[in-house]
Design goal:
Elements: E1 5-14, H1 18-30, E2 35-38, H2 48-52, E3 59-64, H3 100-118, E4 125-127, H4 131-134, H5 136-149, H6 158-166, E5 174-176, H7 186-194, E6 199-205, H8 212-217, H9 223-231, H10 234-242, E7 245-248
Parallel strand pairs: 1-2, 1-6, 1-7, 2-3, 3-4, 5-6
Length: about 250
């Protein structure tokens, strides 16, 4: 098998609900998911450490969440990030006026909570709703913790990949976000695998067993069931093998 094409299949939103936890670990055990990123500010995140004991091959990084849900810090410590109810903005656009020091403080708090839950560092960093692609203050904060830890960061655009490499931060060469919504079909995923460029690519995905909590709090719920079905379809692993693609996790960068 050629190692010229390497693929990280990263499942976002681990820890958000129990159904997402179940779906991601299933997609790892039966499918091609090699990596996941955990949202630490939800109760279901506490279960991840237990679940991971039976799946040590699944790399788990930190899915920094500065949009949606509640912060790790008390709301009075990050007033520029939250509304009157102490909630983070629904989308990254709501962070446009955020205080950079408060962004940094919240990122560090979420990293501390990850370490508390998992007893170790994450394998890498990325962000919910790609806020580190959309908001410079978030990118700068993630860059700072990446420097401090030596850990990789998702390159959510070609420009970001180039900048991270200039800064000496490990990152994949390519980022694939097309496996989503209407694009999350078996034919689409096989096509992505067969057409991967040379180098290391990251494929973002969102498998889940859709539960009531996810259905009531997310605009992207039911399609996650289809993602799980596709990611565990034997035809996909056959395409990986046929195409000479090596599946890896961020820990192997």
């Amino acid at each position: 098998m050629s190692a010229s094409k390497r693929l990280i299949v990263n499942a976002d939103d681990l820890g958000r609900t129990e159904g997402i936890n179940e779906g991601i670990f299933d997609a790892h055990r039966r499918g091609i998911v090699t990596s996941a990123t955990m949202m630490v500010n939800y109760p279901a995140a506490r279960r991840v450490a237990v679940l991971s004991r039976d799946s040590p091959g699944l790399g788990i990084g930190l899915h920094l969440a500065l949009s949606g849900g509640v912060p790790a810090l008390p709301p009075e410590q990050v007033r520029s990030l939250v509304d009157a109810n102490g909630m983070l903005p629904a989308k990254p656009g709501g962070l446009a006026g955020a205080d950079r020091m408060e962004v940094m403080a919240e990122v560090r708090a979420q990293l501390r909570r990850f370490r508390e839950i998992m007893g170790r560092d994450p394998t890498h960093f990325d962000s919910h709703h790609h806020s580190h692609r959309e908001v410079p203050a978030v990118f700068d904060a993630i860059l700072a913790v990446a420097w401090e830890t030596g850990l990789p960061v998702r390159s959510a655009s070609a420009a970001m990949a180039a900048q991270l490499k200039r800064e000496g931060v490990p990152t994949p060469d390519h980022f694939v976000e097309d496996f989503y919504a209407e694009g999350a079909t078996l034919n689409d995923l096989i096509g992505i695998v067969e057409d991967l460029p040379v180098g290391t690519s990251e494929l973002m995905c969102h498998p889940a067993v859709v539960d009531a909590e996810l259905r009531s709090t997310s605009g992207y719920a039911e399609p996650r069931t289809r993602e799980l079905d596709v990611l565990t379809n034997p035809a996909v692993r056959q395409a990986v093998q046929r195409s000479g693609v090596r599946l890896i996790s961020f820990g192997q960068l």
